[in-house]
Every structure is written in structure tokens, then in C-alpha cells.
Design goal:
The chain is of the alpha+beta class and 398 residues long. The chain folds into two domains: 60-76 and 186-395, MetI-like fold; 79-182, no CATH class. It is built from 15 helices and eight strands. The protein has helices at 16-19, 25-30, 47-55, 59-76, 78-81, 184-220, 222-237, 240-248, 257-270, 274-287, 291-298, 303-340, 351-354, 361-366, 373-395; strands at residues 37-38, 41-42, 98-102, 108-115, 117-123, 130-134, 140-153, 157-166. The chain has a four-stranded antiparallel sheet. It has a two-stranded antiparallel ribbon with strand order 1-2. A two-stranded antiparallel sheet has the order 5-6. A hairpin with a 5-residue loop joins strand 3 and strand 4 (108-115). Helix 6 (184-220) packs antiparallel against helix 12 (303-340) and helix 10 packs antiparallel against helix 12. The protein starts with 15 loop residues before the first helix and ends with a helix.
């Protein structure tokens, strides 16, 4: 008995409405491939994007970045943010003024008032010493974007508008005054230009010299590397503080301030490049043995191309972190030399020069607000160290 088989399938075939037209090869070529998701996100992200993604997770690093941005903005527009003329003399060793949101009658006010501290006319019941406190007889109203002393905005636009100050032109001294009666807050804001400028100039010079010497010595090697490293060891072994004092004392006191400042930057840069060159050399020695560098040498690439295209980009991350960690060291060094009188000369203003008023314990005990410039130094050192730690963890998380 012969059995017939039905050649038609019982499963319904899909219609054109459910499937749609078949794509042509040209249309298939236009469809972008799905991005491969790796450990740090989409595969099309660049190295800078990956570093920024990891850096944003660092709370201290972001705080340091915000503080550094504020410091740079304040130092660039220092005259705009300074409420007083940094060279104007008033009452010597005047205590800091107090800002309160109340008028002289004790009523709340949206406009802050400045109350100076002075003798209240009352005496202590036991010691009969005059008591000091807020003088509320004639408070000073404050405001934003007020008129003050004249300066050049962007160094060539005349202006007298300041970010914060008094509306009636009376002095405001939020951190007190020094021995000459000059406002410490305004001098600290204006002095940030010199202190940060010295730090950035020194770090720029030391980074350029240290990177060039380190890469050249590590890549070429041989006798050149031997002689260069002996010289680097001599620079590192030399006691730097006596040399700082000896070299800066060679400049006569009557020399212009710009000449003295340039010489100080030159001395700091000459003595500060050796450590970075040693670090860059060790990185270059390890990178010179990697396969893609050997392949570049085998195909006949020049030394300049190998250094600029293969070695320098891989060393750059370490250089960036070293810059952020070297700036606070230079700020501390400038403050120390300025305290000794070997960094900046008047009429220039720097944080180290302002600390000269704290040379005696009697002054510190009687007028503790003289130590206010230390706050600027501590904030700067903390900001750059926090930024450097965050960048180091983001660039090399392992």
C-alpha cells in the first residue's frame, strides 16, 4: 500500500507585513555596529573620557579642582575681588571686623553690616580693664559690585568696581590689618598672583627640563645616560636650602623687583628638575623595551618620532600628576623663603612676604590675626594635593 506525503507544510509562513522587506547590502552597510560595553563604558570612549569618568568619583579630587579654579579666578581678577587698596594704610594691628545681619537697633536686615571691634566704654568688674566688643553706634553697610579704589581690569581697562565692599567708602577689614595698617585680606588676594605665578613658572621650567633630560637619557642610554645620571645625583645630593640663601643673597638690595623675582624663579627651577628627570628616565627605560617600540625601531622610525609618538604619550600621565604635586611644594618653599626675606621684595606682595610680620611671639600672642596668610597657603596646598591624588587614582587605578 502506497502512502502519500503532503509536501505543503502545516506551519503558516510569515507574511511580508510581519517581516518587512529584506534589507539590501547597501542598507546593511549603513547600520552602525553596536558598541562593545567594557569595564569602563562604551568602547568608543577615549582615554581622556575614561580618566574623567574615574576622576569624578573622587570626592576630594573634585573639591581640589573647584578650589584650584576659584584660586586661579581670584588671582587673575585680584583687584576686582580685593575690597580694599592693599597699599592703603589705616590703623595698625586693627582687629578683624564682624559682619552681622542686623542693624544698630538689633533688627534683622537682609543687607549685612560691618561692625568694628573697639572699646565699649565698659570695664571688667574684677580687673578693671577696658572691655572690647562690637561698636554698634555707626555700622557700615556692605554690598556687592560697589565702588572702591581704581585699578585696571584686564591690565588695561580702567575700573573701580569691586566684588564686595562697603557702600559708603569706609574701610572694611575682615581679617584685620598688619603693622602698617594695611588690609590683610586684600593683600592676601593680590599676593596670590605672585605666589601662584612663581609656582606655575617654576613647575613649568622644571617639567620641561626634567622631561627632556629624562627621556633623552633613558632612551639613548649608554655613556650619555651614565654621565647624565651622575650629574642628576649631584644635584639631588646638594643641600638646597643653603644654596637658595646663597644665590638669592647675590642679588643686591637695590635691584629692581622684576629682576630679583626672575632670579628667584631661575634658582628654584635649576634646583628642582632633577627628581622629575629621574622618574621620567625610569619610565622611559621600561617603555623602550615594549613590543610596539621595538617594532617602530625595526621599521626604521626616527628617534624623534618614537619619542614623541610612543614614549612621551605614555609618560605624560605621570608628568601631569607630578605637576599637581610639585606646585604645593613650590608654594611652601616660596612662603618659607619669603618669611626669611629671600623671595620677594616690596613693593611686590606675596604670602611669604606677608608672613614676615609673624617673626616674634609677642606679635602673634597680641595680634593672632597676623597669621591669616597661612590660611591662603593651607588652602592652596590642600587643593593641589587633593587634585593630584584624584588624578593619580584616575590615571592609574591599579
Amino acid at each position: 500500500m502506497t502512502k502519500t506525503v503532503d509536501t505543503h507544510s502545516s506551519i503558516p509562513l510569515p507574511t511580508d507585513a510581519s517581516v518587512g522587506p529584506m534589507p539590501t547590502p547597501a542598507q546593511e552597510a549603513d547600520v552602525p555596529p553596536a558598541p562593545t560595553i567594557g569595564r569602563f563604558g562604551a568602547g568608543n570612549e577615549g582615554y581622556a573620557t575614561l580618566v574623567w569618568r574615574r576622576f569624578r568619583r573622587s570626592t576630594m579630587g573634585m573639591i581640589g579642582l573647584v578650589l584650584i579654579t576659584l584660586l586661579l579666578v581670584i588671582s587673575i581678577f585680584a583687584d576686582f575681588f580685593a575690597p580694599m587698596d592693599p597699599k592703603e594704610a589705616n590703623l595698625p594691628f586693627a582687629p578683624p571686623d564682624v559682619i552681622a545681619f542686623e542693624d544698630k537697633d538689633g533688627n534683622f536686615s537682609l543687607i549685612p553690616y560691618v561692625y568694628p571691634i573697639g572699646d565699649t566704654g565698659e570695664f571688667d568688674a574684677i580687673t578693671f580693664q577696658p572691655l572690647t566688643g562690637l561698636i554698634k553706634d555707626n555700622p557700615t553697610p556692605t554690598g556687592f559690585f560697589v565702588e572702591g579704589y581704581s585699578y585696571n581690569f584686564f591690565w588695561f581697562i580702567p575700573s573701580n568696581i569691586h566684588f564686595f565692599g562697603t557702600t559708603d567708602g569706609r574701610p572694611i577689614q575682615l581679617l584685620g590689618t598688619d603693622k602698617f595698617g594695611r588690609d590683610i585680606l586684600s593683600r592676601g588676594i593680590v599676593g596670590s598672583r605672585i605666589s601662584l605665578m612663581i609656582a606655575l613658572a617654576v613647575v613649568t621650567l622644571t617639567t620641561i627640563v626634567g622631561t627632556l633630560v629624562g627621556i633623552t637619557s633613558g632612551y639613548i642610554g649608554g655613556r650619555l645616560d651614565n654621565w647624565v645620571q651622575r650629574f642628576v645625583e649631584f644635584v639631588l645630593a646638594f643641600p638646597q636650602l643653603p644654596l637658595y640663601l646663597a644665590l638669592t643673597s647675590l642679588i643686591p638690595v637695590t635691584a629692581p623687583s622684576n629682576v630679583f623675582l626672575s632670579f628667584v624663579i631661575f634658582v628654584m627651577a635649576v634646583l628642582g628638575w632633577a627628581q622629575l628627570s629621574r622618574e621620567v628616565r625610569s619610565k622611559t627605560l621600561s617603555l623602550a623595551r615594549i613590543e610596539y617600540v621595538r617594532a617602530a625601531i625595526a621599521v626604521g622610525s626616527s628617534d624623534a618620532r618614537i619619542i614623541t609618538r610612543h614614549i612621551l604619550p605614555n609618560v605624560l600621565s605621570h608628568i601631569i600628576v607630578s605637576i599637581t604635586l610639585a606646585i604645593p611644594s613650590v608654594v611652601l618653599l616660596e612662603s618659607f623663603l619669603g618669611f626669611l626675606g629671600f623671595a620677594v621684595k616690596p613693593p611686590l606682595i606675596s604670602w611669604g612676604l606677608m608672613l614676615q610680620d609673624t617673626g616674634t611671639f609677642s606679635v602673634i600672642g597680641s595680634y593672632p590675626w597676623i597669621l591669616s596668610p597661612v590660611i591662603f597657603v593651607l588652602i592652596t596646598v590642600f587643593a593641589f594635593n587633593a587634585l593630584g591624588d584624584g588624578l593619580r587614582d584616575a590615571i592609574d587605578p591599579y
